[in-house]
């Protein structure tokens, strides 16, 4: 629950850091309320209220605050110190109420008994919130440093109290950087100085309260529950990782359990979609209206919906509605004058200027891929008709493209199209032309130590191998098929960390031949592209090696990565926008979420075929 606990587990007990997850102590969800709100009902309207709550025991240091009260009262005569809570049951068994009585006796000796109120009972959750809100200053005067977590401190912090505390481990961590005031152990004078200073400065006290309240939103029960859901999901999913690496779990679970996949969850996709289409970016899990929509992501989304509908006849009826929304945006994107699909649509539904040629070629190719998939697999005749018209208009432009990825997308698109229109020789001729170009590029650049299509690797790399595998297999072209296998095997090899997990090519720069491989930022798109290509290699060859490679790439989403973090968000159904050197990108945009969901849909289909013993 604290960073100090992480340090102790690692340093004192040799627990590997990758086995530790930090989830803070949970607190109630409460609005930010002024202390005066509840003071009147407790007859405290004109009082400066200090509060300590919890089970009473000598290590809590309550006497230190009582000893500080004479000095506090000199400056703030209306101060009241409330001690809320019963004596610890273990203490009651051994010495009864001796400690509480000693505190009352101390208050009498110091002539502050009228300023100390003992509430000797358990209070309900609602009462506790009222006392916490009413407190101007919360105090934890504990006597010893070795307290790893304090639930009472967490509650008061999250409610938005101004806090004074001794520097035991949890307080030192939580109240650092001005989020509270730390005073030495067993130092009533320091407590008095801190209380008077804080009670006399409304601006500082209120700023401290607001800082604590805002930071505490990361500790509320809904947020903490979400973190536990993610942790439990990670623990379930990483069974398969342990098994594949020869870990101790390998013999405890069946093969089906070890390769268990997340369940389909489209909540985040629906959140990112309005009546126009799918927003391309998100701020955390909220749609980013400022960045608008793009055809590229709506094409991906259409592919996903078509795949899901074709895989499950009892699929969510919302899938058909979403597919229609994405297809309608692609229809709107087509520009008659240029024969091209525009890409970026602003929130006000105006089209943004196009980016450089290669980028717009890739987005056009992906739209053609989506339309081909819709034609080849969709069961909705209305969608088929609209997709056919757009496919016919958009396909001719790809013959003039120079982007290898646009060629690859179009080759895959035509393969999907030919599922339904296998006799279309004109379209098949375009596929042959594009495949020959891609193969010629491979032969021009490939070398034994660099068997690749270009002298560099950038993004969506595995799609190039994928396209050659498809075409080589469909046409019986052994050279192209071999080039697809060789290039993909090399790509997967360099996308393997020394520990054996999948490590996609980083996107912080282009990976040029002969230079050091970029490790970050790792993108969900690369895992999706690799999963698809490896599953295609498995379908073509029947070699389970490729199925295993697809599983390894998919596990990247589920913690099988350099940081052992879940890139997939189990609660929202979204996917984080990347893996940085030290953290996740917390935004969950369309490309990342669709990359995960597409990879999941393909893995689910592959697992189903494997379990049924069907065709690879």
Explain briefly what this protein structure is.
By secondary structure, the protein is α/β, with parallel strands linked by helices. Helix content is 51%, strand content 7%.
List keywords for this structure.
7% strand; single chain; alpha/beta; 6-stranded parallel beta sheet; 25 helices; 616 residues; two-stranded antiparallel sheet; elongated
Write down the overall geometry.
elongated
Q: Compute the average pLDDT.
A: 91
End-to-end gap: 46 Å
**Runs with pLDDT <50, length 5+?**
240-258
Q: Mind summarizing the main beta sheet?
A: 6 strands, parallel
By DSSP, the count of extended strands is 14
For the largest beta sheet, what order do the strands appear in spatially?
3-2-1-4-5-6
Q: Percent range for helical residues?
A: 40-55%
Radius of gyration in whole Å, from Cα?
A: 31 Å
User: How much of the polypeptide forms β-strand, as a percent range?
Assistant: 5-15%
Return the structural class: alpha/beta
Q: Specify the number of helices.
A: 25
SSE inventory with pairings:
Layout: H1 3-11, H2 36-39, E1 48-53, H3 62-75, E2 79-84, H4 89-95, H5 98-109, E3 116-119, H6 125-134, E4 137-140, H7 151-159, E5 162-165, H8 169-174, E6 181-182, H9 188-199, H10 202-216, H11 221-237, H12 239-244, H13 255-258, H14 267-271, E7 282-283, E8 286-287, E9 293-294, H15 295-311, H16 318-333, E10 334-335, E11 340-341, E12 344-345, H17 357-377, H18 381-394, H19 404-417, H20 425-445, E13 456-457, H21 462-475, H22 478-494, E14 511-512, H23 524-541, H24 544-555, H25 590-612
Parallel strand pairs: 1-2, 1-4, 2-3, 4-5, 5-6
Antiparallel strand pairs: 7-8, 9-12, 10-11, 13-14
Helix pairs in contact: 3-9, 7-10, 15-16, 15-17, 15-25, 17-18, 17-19, 19-20, 19-21, 20-21, 21-22, 21-23, 22-23, 23-24, 23-25, 24-25
């Amino acid at each position: 629950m604290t960073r100090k606990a992480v340090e102790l587990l690692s340093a004192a007990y040799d627990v590997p850091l990758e086995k530790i997850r930090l989830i803070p102590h949970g607190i109630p969800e409460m609005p930010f309320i002024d202390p005066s709100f509840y003071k009147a009902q407790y007859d405290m309207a004109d009082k400066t209220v200090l509060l300590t709550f919890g089970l009473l025991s000598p290590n809590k240091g309550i006497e230190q605050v009582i000893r500080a009260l004479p000095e506090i009262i000199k400056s703030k005569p209306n101060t009241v110190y409330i001690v809320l809570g019963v004596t610890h049951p273990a203490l009651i068994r051994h010495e009864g109420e001796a400690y509480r009585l000693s505190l009352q006796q101390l208050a009498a000796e110091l002539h502050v008994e009228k300023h100390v109120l003992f509430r000797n009972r358990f209070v309900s959750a609602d009462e506790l919130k009222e006392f916490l809100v009413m407190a101007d200053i919360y105090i934890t005067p504990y006597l010893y440093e070795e307290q790893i977590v304090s639930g009472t401190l967490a509650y008061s912090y999250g409610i938005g109290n101004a806090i004074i505390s001794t520097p035991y481990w949890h307080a030192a961590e939580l109240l650092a950087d001005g989020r509270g005031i730390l005073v030495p152990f067993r130092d009533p004078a320091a407590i008095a100085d801190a209380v008077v200073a804080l009670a006399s400065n409304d601006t500082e006290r209120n700023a401290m309260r607001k800082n604590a309240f805002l930071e505490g939103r990361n500790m509320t029960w809904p947020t903490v529950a979400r973190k536990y859901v993610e942790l439990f999901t990670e623990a379930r999913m990483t069974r398969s990782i342990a098994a594949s690496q020869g870990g101790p779990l390998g013999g405890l679970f069946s093969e089906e359990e070890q390769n268990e996949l997340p369940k389909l969850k489209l909540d985040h996709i629906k959140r990112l979609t309005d009546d126009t289409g799918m927003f391309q970016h998100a701020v955390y899990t909220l749609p980013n209206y400022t960045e608008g929509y793009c055809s590229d992501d709506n094409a991906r989304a259409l592919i996903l919906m078509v795949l899901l509908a074709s895989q499950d006849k009892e699929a969510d009826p919302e899938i058909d509605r979403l597919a229609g929304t994405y297809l309608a945006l692609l229809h709107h994107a087509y520009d008659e004058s240029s024969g091209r699909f525009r890409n970026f649509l602003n929130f006000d539904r105006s089209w943004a200027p196009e980016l450089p040629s290669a980028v717009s070629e890739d987005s056009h190719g992906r739209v053609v891929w989506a339309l081909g998939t819709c034609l080849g697999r969709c069961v909705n005749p209305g969608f088929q008709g609209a997709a056919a018209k757009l496919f016919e208009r958009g396909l001719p432009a790809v013959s003039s493209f120079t982007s290898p990825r646009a060629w690859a997308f179009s080759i895959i698109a035509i393969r999907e199209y030919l599922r339904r229109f296998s006799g279309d020789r004109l379209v098949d001729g375009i596929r042959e032309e594009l495949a020959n170009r891609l193969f010629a590029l491979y032969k021009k650049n490939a070398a034994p130590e660099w068997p690749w299509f270009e002298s560099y690797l950038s993004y969506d790399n595995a799609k190039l191998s994928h396209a050659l595998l498809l075409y080589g297999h469909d046409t019986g072209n052994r050279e192209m098929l071999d080039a697809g296998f060789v290039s993909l095997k090399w790509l997967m090899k360099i996308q393997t960390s020394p520990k054996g997990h999948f490590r996609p090519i980083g996107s912080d720069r282009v990976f040029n031949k002969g230079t050091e491989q970029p490790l970050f930022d790792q993108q969900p798109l690369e895992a999706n592209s690799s999963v698809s290509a490896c599953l295609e290699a498995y379908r073509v060859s029947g070699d389970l090696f490729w199925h295993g490679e697809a599983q390894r790439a998919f596990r990247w989403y589920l913690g099988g990565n350099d940081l052992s973090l879940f890139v997939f968000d189990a609660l929202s159904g979204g996917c984080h926008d990347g893996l940085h050197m030290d953290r996740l990108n917390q935004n969950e945009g369309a490309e990342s979420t669709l990359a995960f969901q597409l990879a999941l849909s393909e893995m689910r289909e592959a697992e189903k075929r494997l379990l049924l013993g069907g065709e690879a």
